[in-house]
Specification:
Blueprint: H1 5-8, E1 14-21, E2 28-33, H2 38-51, E3 66-69, E4 91-96, H3 107-113, H4 117-124
Parallel strand pairs: 1-4
Antiparallel strand pairs: 1-2, 3-4
Length: 125
């Protein structure tokens, strides 16, 4: 009986995920199983954020009030039913939804469209 090198390596069962929450310093780091959905990941990140007593204090900890994105520059949020193993990334950005927006784009998409250069000039002045 011949053993292949493929059989000798352990199978990946969990993944270290980094999620940065809008306006927060540094990412929340979690180790999660690969079969977790985006919605479950969002809920776990929010629980960990509150547990660590991070600032700023969030206006809501309801996972349905947040959208998960690949980055702060990604306008399209991830499908809530998508599995972590299918996303192809370990780094994400979480931001609050805008329930008042008719087109259901998240609040962070407005931040991307905003011209931030003038803020830096004010800061430096």
């Amino acid at each position: 009986m011949k053993t292949t090198t493929h059989d000798m390596h352990p199978k990946l069962t969990k993944l270290l995920v980094n999620v940065t929450i809008q306006r927060s310093l540094g990412p929340v780091k979690l180790v999660l199983p690969l079969d977790v959905t985006v919605e479950e990941l969002t809920a776990a990140v929010l629980r960990q954020y509150v547990k660590e007593m991070r600032l700023p204090i969030l206006s809501s900890v309801d996972p349905s009030a947040f959208d998960l994105h690949y980055s702060r520059f990604s306008l399209e949020s991830l499908n809530r039913e998508e599995k972590l193993m299918n996303l192809g990334s370990r780094n994400f950005f979480l931001c609050l939804n805008s329930s008042a927006a008719a087109d259901s784009r998240s609040v962070c998409s407005k931040d991307v469209g905003r011209k931030g250069g003038s803020l830096w000039l004010k800061f430096l002045a």
